[in-house]
Amino acid sequence: MKIFTTCAMSAIIGLTSLLPVEASPTAVRSINSASDVQNVQYRERRGHWHGHRGYRERRRGYRRHSDGYWYPLAAFGAGAIIGGAIANSRDNGGSHEEWCANRYRSYSVRTDTYVGNDGRRHRCNSPY
Fold first, then answer.
1. So where does this one cross the membrane (predicted)?
2. What confidence tens digit (pLDDT) does each residue in 28-74 have?
């Protein structure tokens, strides 16, 4: 069934690629000589849209933004310090190895296995 479907899809794609392709021309609109453009007089307005209108004194709640050059440096520094502390505090799995070594005399740390009573190697399943 899969071979039949593959062959059918290949035939359909192959036959449709052989058919000629025609693009229809776009319809040309007639351009009106009369325009809806109106000339208006420009008036310069001072101030900003919904914002500070240009008063000389600082308004209440004003916060200056010119001292922000050190923010990225502080953020990256804090991230490096926190990331380094997290990386160095990880447990290396010593409790698992210690438990298995205390439980089985034939425990191998390299392979994480021990030799059972049946003579085969088994993986150590500790509670850690």
1. 69-87
2. 666 666 677 778 877 766 655 666 555 556 666 666 666 566 677 77
